[in-house]
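P.,

For your records, the input lines for the assembly:
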Amino acid sequence: MFAATYGLNVGPASPARRASPPARGGVGGRGFNRIEGVDMANVVVVGAQWGDEGKGKIVDWLSERADTIARFQGGHNAGHTLVIDGKVYKLSLLPSGIVRGGKLSVIGNGVVLDPWHLKKEIEQLRGQGVEISPKTLMIAENAPLILPIHGELDRAREEASAQGTKIGTTGRGIGPAYEDKVGRRAIRVADLADAATLETRVDRALAHHDALRRGLGMDPVDRDGLLAQLKEIAPSVLEYAAPVWKVLDAKRRAGKRILFEGAQGALLDIDFGTYPFVTSSNVIAGQAATGTGIGPGAIDFVLGIVKAYTTRVGEGPFPAELDDADGQRLGERGHEFGTVTGRKRRCGWFDAVLVRQTCATSGVNGIALTKLDVLDGFETLKICVGYDLDGERLDHLPFAADAQARCAPIYEEMPGWSQSTEGARSWAELPAEAIKYVRRVEELIQCPVALLSTSPEREDTILVTDPFED
Ligand code: GDP
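Structure tokens returned:
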């Protein structure tokens, strides 16, 4: 059974657990994607719930040990705060590696890029002493741009939506920018380099946008104004433009460690999330390949970040949601307010059904279980282990919205613990009930714990498996 294969190393000196090492090097068979003599270790980090799982701390720890850090989806909505040597850095577009010297940060083609925000974030970081140059930052030439008209459209649509049908977007134009990408009318980074191309692209985009705006009662776009804005901002983006796929291929061939930094969470994935209350891009681990141009065989380890309970921002289904004192307590102890929007997050018990599902769709090799300390002091803990749909037990969340709405959580109860786990750095410091909880989570989601986080501090982590060295 699973538990026997992936049993935790419980003990004060827990050495990193090793599975049998995968074949490395050579050609043919499973080794076909491998490069002879290169011991590759490329890691994808994805949120395995609805985002806000605590990716920042784990990504920071991994990025310190990576050569290249690449973002592969989303836009400037990936807000997180890094604290390094007492300095606080706020990032929402640039990869975490940017604040560390000697790393290459990459924005892949899967990201939608707001050039004005890029400039602002770079200036802010430079003001804090971070060195940013085309040697440390590269942006995919084929990444689509977010324009001011995308933000306007985003906000106008949300305002026009009836309560209950709002998607809960951050209003930054990310969704409309992805729509233009798929509609083949996006303006991409490379288009900024040539005035004639830019004009053609803008005209093509506006033929669509002006029609949309008319329907929403908005004024048509000021074409010349937009072109002037784009020409003015172009050098600030073009400076970093590069064929990212090629750069990453060279890094991979040189055996450098690449960290693919996911934003948001797998339950917000455009295909596999709780549609339509999702983000506009693929979030699951496969997107690391298509969103940067590296082959799927180059990914060695997928780390899913999982919070020890569940939260969600905005509207949409949430079967294990708590509308009582326990939910209130999770929110308060976990400081569940959005970093970018300040919105209060909805809270609920751990939903093992959903995490098993996201571990499967992202091919997660191990999870980082975060915020275990938030569960301290609960007399009883519940885990959602299935759904009751009209008397039938389900072990997955169906895609049909009406069925989702009727899914009632089936809970398993476990005793909680009264001792504090905050700041624990070894299994020996955890109460027996906390270890049982973690083991039960592993069993239910059919995936082992690689890291366990017990406070916002980097050092307050129990390492079971190092994703770069597994
Ligand atoms: P992201 O959206 O997934 O990147 O989530 P963040 O990195 O913004 O994390 C959300 C919050 O949780 C931050 O304030 C972190 O400091 C905090 N956090 C991360 N791990 C832990 C943990 O193990 N325990 C506690 N109590 N807080 C944590």
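Two observations worth noting. The chain has two domains: 25-141+243-463, 148-238. Residues 1-33 have pLDDT under 50 and may be disordered.

Regards
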